[in-house]
Amino acid sequence: MYDIAVVGLGIAGSSTVYQASRRNLKVIGLEQFGSVIHAMGSSHGKTRIIRQAYFEHPDYVPLVLDAYREWDALEQTIGERLLIPTGGVMMGRPETDVVTGSRLAAQQHGLPFEELSAAEVRERFPGFRITDDEVAIYEPQAGYLRVEPGLQALIREAQRHGAEIQFNQVVEDVQLQGDHVVLTTPTGTFAARQVILTVGAWLTRWAPALPLEVERQVPMWFRPEEHHNLDSLPIYIREHPRNGRQAYGFPYIEGQGIKAGVHHQGQISPLDQVNRQVTSQDIEQLMETLDFIPSIHADSLQEALVCLYTNTPDSHFVVGRVPQNPGVIIAGGFSGHGYKFGPTVGSLVTDMALGTQPGPALFHPARFR
Ligand SMILES: Cc1cc2nc3c(=O)[nH]c(=O)nc-3n(C[C@H](O)[C@H](O)[C@H](O)COP(=O)(O)OP(=O)(O)OC[C@H]3O[C@@H](n4cnc5c(N)ncnc54)[C@H](O)[C@@H]3O)c2cc1C
Question: What does pTM read for this prediction?
Answer without folding.
Answer: 0.98
